[in-house]
Q: What sequence folds into this?
């Protein structure tokens, strides 16, 4: 069965992004060196039929990419010059909120990848290779162990401290955003002094 090469490298990239895999980890699953995989992903090399056949079960689990609307930044309030303490605190709150948003984004990505692995693993573990060669039949226990390790990693990510941290960060961010809104409103109501 022939696969177009753009299917292969876009699938490799999509699989790596969706499941949060490094080139080394995906290379282990596919049974190829990470350097070769990097060349395939960068379109400097063509993937073999074996690589494409091994990639297919993972690629089938990746949904089509959604079209996202661009995010609009929050408006920056214009404050009168005599409101210096309010402006300083507003700047602090915005800086802390930005840091929390980045941290929450990373944590949300980790949790999302872990959920994807938990959703995809039953189908991947149940899948049998299409027309397996003797070498692929021999590799099957290795691939199953690799998949099971991914499942264990996902379970660890979704339980315990990361879930608690996610909820704590969400609460802190909500409080900072409320304070930021109140400061912005106070600065908007502040009368200007001067001539």
A:
């Amino acid at each position: 069965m022939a696969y177009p090469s753009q299917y292969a490298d876009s699938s490799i990239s999509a699989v790596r992004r969706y499941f949060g895999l490094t080139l080394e980890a995906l290379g282990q699953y596919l049974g190829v060196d990470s350097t070769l995989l990097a060349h395939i992903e960068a379109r400097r090399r063509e993937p073999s039929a074996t690589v494409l056949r091994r990639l297919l079960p993972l690629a089938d689990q990746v949904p089509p990419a959604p079209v996202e609307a661009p995010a609009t930044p929050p408006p920056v309030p214009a404050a009168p010059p005599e409101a210096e303490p309010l402006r300083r605190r507003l700047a602090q709150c915005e800086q802390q909120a930005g840091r929390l948003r980045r941290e929450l984004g990373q944590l949300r990505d980790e949790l999302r990848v872990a959920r994807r692995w938990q959703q995809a693993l039953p189908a991947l573990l149940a899948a049998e290779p299409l027309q397996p060669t003797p070498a692929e039949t021999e590799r099957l226990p290795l691939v199953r162990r690799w998949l099971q390790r991914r499942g264990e990693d996902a379970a660890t990510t979704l339980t315990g401290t990361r879930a608690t941290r996610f909820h704590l960060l969400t609460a802190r961010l909500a409080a900072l955003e409320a304070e930021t809104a109140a400061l912005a409103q106070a600065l908007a109501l502040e009368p200007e002094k001067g001539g």
